[in-house]
Amino acid sequence: MPKRQGKDKFSFTVCGEFFPDVYPASRSPRWSRGEEDPLETEMRLFCSCMRWAFNRLSEGASRDEIKKLGQELFGLNSRYADDARLKAQAVLDSQKELLELEIEETEKKLGRATKKLGLAMKKLAKAEEKGAPPEVIAKLRLVVKGRNNRAASLEKKLAELEAHRENGTVPKVVFGGKKLWKKVCKGRATREEWRAARKNRLYCRGDEKKGGNPNLKVTCREGEFHLAVTLSHLSEKVGEDALGRPKMSRAPRVEGRLWLPEKYKDLVRMWLAMKLPYTVELIRTPEGRYLVHLTFDLGAAREPDFTKGCLALDT
């Protein structure tokens, strides 16, 4: 469905599923791990690069530094490395925005907790003054203790959040999901599930000059959609250009059928025929399925002109 991206910009996302069936025969002895296939390797390297880029951005590293070093450390091509940086930047920006909201929410919670603590203390004082039974007083003291601990915990959290705001930092980010990590800590989920959630994505922006998307390319042949995923870690250095940058061999691809909802097929066909850019995010589920999010940038929305009046407004 259409969603807003920034000020006066809209995009349209279509969700589908990828069924890879053509894999390259080669495996990288340097980058592959265990029995994972090349697509899983590429996704793991991309997610690792994104986490690494997040830490470098927090330290103030520049785009060029991250892009160049990311290619060397993770075996990705230039666009994958830059897209990993963009995803990391988006996480960092969202955390900075959420910091202000979290401070505001914590202040409200602390106010309510302090009020409840005061009421509980008054109730305890009255009970002691009237000589209430010991079990009633013990219960009220337990309530006061619990609410005092709650208020102290919120005060500590608020101080930490305000310190982050003053220092220009953000709270610690748990890639793979904080909720899932808490389940792991409580024994309700395995570490393997959490590790799988940390290496289950691949993302690439669209590029109009390269026919839509250079790394995650969607095509339509004989009425069916197909997706080709570039495996940049399998490309090899074949030389250097005039500026001393490495020249890489053409990377192999994983190809397969792409399922899309029937009602969006005509839209996607039209978009592909016009060779407009589209963004693709590939997500691997715990069951081993590959979900695809195709995002089409609809551009800026026109400002309405009411100089000649308005017949009606649809809300």
Tell me what the structure shows:
By secondary structure, the chain is α+β, with helices and mostly antiparallel strands. The protein has one domain (2-96, 174-300). It has helices spanning 38-58, 63-74, 78-130, 134-167, 178-185, 191-197, 265-273, and strands spanning 2-4, 9-22, 201-204, 216-221, 224-230, 237-240, 246-248, 253-259, 278-284, 290-300. Strands 1, 2, 3, 4, 5, 8, 9 and 10 form an eight-stranded antiparallel β-sheet that branches. The longest helix has 53 residues, at 78-130.
The strand count comes to 10
List SSEs in N-to-C order.
EEHHHHHHEEEEEEHEE
Helix coverage percent: 40-55%
Q: Kindly name the structural category.
A: alpha+beta
What Rg do the Cα atoms give?
27 Å
Beta-strand percent range: 15-25%
Number of helices: 7
- Distance between the amino and carboxyl termini: 18 Å
Instruction: Tell me, briefly, the overall form.
Output: elongated
Low-confidence stretches: none
Tell me the major beta sheet.
8 strands, antiparallel
Number of domains: 1
Average the pLDDT over all residues and give the rounded result.
90
Write a compact overview of the structure shown.
With 315 residues, the protein is an alpha+beta fold.
Task: Draw up the topology in text.
Layout: E1 2-4, E2 9-22, H1 38-58, H2 63-74, H3 78-130, H4 134-167, H5 178-185, H6 191-197, E3 201-204, E4 216-221, E5 224-230, E6 237-240, E7 246-248, E8 253-259, H7 265-273, E9 278-284, E10 290-300
Antiparallel strand pairs: 1-2, 2-8, 2-10, 3-9, 4-5, 5-8, 6-7, 9-10
Helix pairs in contact: 1-2, 1-3, 2-3, 3-4
